[in-house]
User: What shape does this take?
Amino acid sequence: MTAAVLQRLAAMMPPGRFLERPEQLAAYESDGLTAFRVRPSAVVIPETAEEVIALVRFCHAEKLPFVARGSGTSLSGGSLPVEGGIVVALNRLNRILRLDPAQRLAVVEPGVVNLDVTATAMVHGLHYAPDPSSQSICTVGGNVAFNSGGAHCLKYGMTANHVLGIKAVLATGEVVEWGGPSRETVGPDWCGLFTGNEGLFGIALEITLQLLPRAECYHTVLAGYRTLEQAGDAVSAVIASGLLPGAIEIMDALALEAAVAAVHAEYPPGCEAVLIVELEGPREVVAADRERLDQIIAASQPVEARPARDAEERMAIWKGRKSAFSAVGRLSPDFIVQDGVVPRRRLGEALRRIGDLARKSGLRVANVFHAGDGNLHPLILFNGRVPGELQQAEALAGEILKMCVEMGGSITGEHGVGMEKRDYLPAMFSPDEIDCMRRLRAAFDPLGIANPGKMFPSAEAPSLQHHGLHPLEKAGVISRE
Amino acid sequence: MNTVLTPTSAEELVEAVRSTPRVIAVGAGTKPRLSQVEAVRISMAGLRGIKEYDPSEFTFTAAAGTPLGEIADALAERGQYLPFDPMLVDAGATLGGTVAAGVSGPGRFRYGGLRDFVLGVRFVDGTGRLLRMGGKVVKNAAGFDLPKFFVGSLGRFGVLAEMTFKVFPRPPTALTLRLRGGSQILSETANSRFEFDALDIAPGETDMLARLCGPEAALKTLSREIFARWPGEIVSEDPWTALREFRWVNPGASLIKVAVSPAKIATLEGLRCHLSAGGNFAFVSGEAGELDERLCKAGLSGVTLRGEAPLWLGVRSRPAIAQAVKQALDPVNRFPPLDD
Assistant: This one.
């Protein structure tokens, strides 16, 4: 980018909302995938949709690459800046434009924090279902761009299943509005196509989200097992029973160790795995279902099963689970979170193979996963100060992803492809299929200026560097999942 | 053009698409208006059958021409179902036709519609390439979500060959209640703690049909409380099959799907219609001219499934990107334009 272009860009923004000094840019160099770092030419901080539209049109006219960014929690490097490009920081577009309890929906700007939607809707007995672990900090715009998930996807789906309408500025500068208050559409599902575009199509300006009535009642059980296989078998038994739990999660021994160290979580002793199953719904329904669940768990021969007796005990179970990621930071100076998916029935086999791969590479791997939908999150522990260990960890992560595809699964369940997994896209899709996706991308962004370098395998890769944990992660503010 | 091609495999489907400059796929013809275009027809009847079904995965994969009934039976045998209540099952509607038409039923209310359960597609694009998008597992975020885009795309962007769906365990019992108050109690019931499975108003009725699903013991207790709040009674005969099969629509009359929102259902007042999914969509039968006018005024849109009415009613936006995406998937205009 020439100095003249930068100057004209600066002239578009009021003072304080155009950043170009190195110390100002530093905070935007990296996201949740801390192994990568790129300094953008500038960061712009729009406050209105009109400003975002003007910025994108400027980028289009100048063929200037741009990366939209919310809170920068992407674990796939989705908001990693582009050299010679700008970052459009959307955090100030953080208004909840409309809350419509009668129609159970909210219209929000992209910079609204995920959890704030639920916090606002709660007085009406409603909530926004998708709950990525970073939900207290990640933004809806980022959730939409990467089709984020969470612990409740089996029953409630991912972000795409909750987006009813999108107003967006495409990379061409065209402004589109799709969908709206209705939960149904007529004609092709454009919102469905836009959600999960990884920032390659444009920037969402207004998002209509469906809200759901909050479950009235929960029944949460934590059960410890001698072996991972036993825990896996218990999951199969729950699934086979015809129950539809809101969440089914498993943590392995190393993840348990981390949770104990971090939040003093307490687990049955001598367990290689802990299973968490949660039922939710009207209290009469939960009462009937819990009897069945308790029988199934009892029959699965746990070391111990602990149903949460009250809301406090339930929160404690989830606190241990949700802290597991950042807690692993206590066991190791660095770690990589993976996000593969395997068919549920092959979970046990997948975990055995991950163990074998880990032993071969000499690195430790902790496993925390959404067992209900086969979504694995192996945490690969390494020490970045040891030369070559980061590359070794990356290689192990790659082996695990290839294994997931081989088993009929996916390279990503909820983090997106981004920068991190783009070289593995060909493991899942044929050259023709990738070509089809490239054509689609070109339809939305003929110049290739919207978040270039993400999703598609590419030659221009920033090199891996060791930077340690994210500062906010060290502070315990954010966690990776 | 009366030519009908009859492929019996994905490879033959590719051949069929490549063989002629203008084609449209047809299933059982239960929504004939959608394929009423000048084009060589590809009958999907020869591509049928469930390819994979593993109940423990909550997924199945079936060829596009598979009748919904065959799928429903196979799922029921293992205590599972497609929660969005696919329509026209007895009429022989196919899975592919249902996706292309984008038609969900009353069960859409609780867990979402067709778009929320389709996980992956195999399709032939306009250049005659057989492509797979999405995945075969219940959770997947790799690549663009074309499977969702195909829902409601009317075969104008590609021919679906095969689809993978998510399924759910079927609740042990269902109970239908008829509640007084109809549209007046739509938002109260929808926001209530009872987690209704469906909230519909049948054509010509003013009462609401509210379906509850779950363990039998719970439903009895719940229904007592529900009646204390909204007077009504338990419906003993099954009202859903007749709605599912559109038995209320006169032969030859038009049938139009309208996407509406609960706040705008007054737009449809006085029209012969089945209001479904808590007021989120409606099937309307009757004169299209007046409906078109009303939809335009209300900023709503509809698509004609049967009858001689124009394909699209109400507001239509055709942004430049729609044409660009069409070009990306179908550069030689092998399939009819969306407006045809």
